[in-house]
Amino acid sequence: MEALALRSPVEAIPAAEPLSDVARAAAGDVRAFEQLYRTHLPRVNSLVRRMTAGRDADELTQDVFVRVWQKLATFRGDSSFTTWLHRLAVNVVIERFRTDQVRRARMHDGEDIFEMLPAPAQTRDIGMDFEAALEKLPDGARQIFVLHDVEGYKHHEIATMLEISAGTSKAQLHRARMMLRRHLK
Amino acid sequence: MTDKWIDRLSEYIDDELTHDERAQLEAHLSTCRECADTLEDLRAVVSRAGNLPTRAPETDLWPGIEPRLSSGRSDAVLPFQARGSRRFSFTAPQLVAAGLALMLMSGGGVWVLQHGGRATSMPPIAATADPGTAALPAGLSDPRYDEAIADLEQALEAGRSELDATTIQILEANLAVIDKAIDDSRQALDADPANVYLNNHLADARQRKLALLRRATALVATKG
């Protein structure tokens, strides 16, 4: 039984995670995977929607969960399942941006867009106003803002993910904050 | 905005300035109203971003995901364009076979949940000699899957004496249930090889067999 002594991904999952669902999904249980999907859908969809400004967010969210299914066996428990899942989601979104030439062509300096946005009305949901303003940011600044200020990634992590320098990440973050600040005033 | 400190305010908020830079900026803030106001606004932005609520999509996305899981974790996952675009029609024998497979799989699933899903009753799924086989392709024919099943069955047979009669009886009964589901799915697929629904059933049953055998051999290992 020597072959059985090797550590499996399932055994390495931290106890704090919903062990049974992750373990069963890793073993091919579609129903367990559906439960994982339902647990994590709101956060993953929100992350994807914010990074993409809502463009094809649901389609990309589906792609994320299919990728999770494909990669679940590689999850070793070095981080929490949630952390692993969100990193994978970010990678899926970044890949889409890199490979989609049409979207690349859309990347522009969007500061002028804020001049056209109406000021938030008193009766509107301020959270929705913020989300709307977020969608108007240029792609690069928005992605970095979401990764840093919403998702909590560090600049060196963002730099690795986006293949940019940490200095660029900091500059884009400040740019995004200043643009959002103008809208929220 | 020519004030050089304006562009350093985010670094100040994120505590990324050196000690000296921080001291200089704080001294500047005490005399520059514009920078002080901007700093307050930026802090509000950061605070807002950190408290955004999560929101699920308006429609359930699972129906567009499940069909794409058809071949386990192989490269045969359906491309996005294919999902949801095909209308299915089943013959009566296919529906009977699929229904039977569902019922049988449900029975097997209950057992796995009750006996295999808790570390206290059975150990976690053990890996085979190749850790990369943790999620083998479970398509209609894959040599790695067949080899893994054969190895696990051999290991289980070799360690059979370590298990009590009741455990062996349960294991054999559930393996029979899963094998029956696999056979039924295969028969239905013979008539309609491209049927995604039936392919899902077959892949699911094969993965369940793999998982059950792994748990069983892991149990043998702990007894031996």
Notable characteristics:
heterodimer; A: 185 residues; mainly alpha; Rna Polymerase Sigma Factor, Chain: A; Arc Repressor Mutant, subunit A; 2 domains; 68% helix; elongated; disordered N terminus; B: 224 residues
Fold and architecture overview:
The complex is a heterodimer of chains A (185) and B (224). The model of chain A is unreliable at 1-17 and 106-126 (pLDDT under 50). Chain A has 185 residues and is an all-alpha fold. Chain A has ten helices and no strands. Chain A folds into two domains: 12-106, RNA polymerase sigma factor, region 2, helix turn helix motif (Rna Polymerase Sigma Factor, Chain: A, Orthogonal Bundle), CATH 1.10.1740; 108-185, Winged helix-like DNA-binding domain superfamily/Winged helix DNA-binding domain (Arc Repressor Mutant, subunit A, Orthogonal Bundle), CATH 1.10.10. Chain A is elongated. In chain A, helix 2 (30-52) packs across helix 8. In chain A, 68% of the residues lie in helices and 0% in strands. Chain B has 224 residues and is mainly α. Chain B has two domains: 6-50, no CATH class; 62-223, no CATH class. Chain B has eight helices and no strands. Chain B has helices at residues 9-13, 19-29, 33-50, 62-65, 92-116, 143-158, 165-191, 196-223. In chain B, helix 5 (92-116) packs parallel to helix 8 (196-223). Chain B is elongated, with a radius of gyration of 29 Å. Residues 74-96, 98-102 and 106-135 of chain B have low confidence and may be disordered. Classes of the chains: A mainly alpha (185), B mainly alpha (224). At the A-B interface, helix 1, helix 2, helix 3, helix 7 and helix 8 of A face helix 1, helix 3, helix 4 and helix 8 of B.
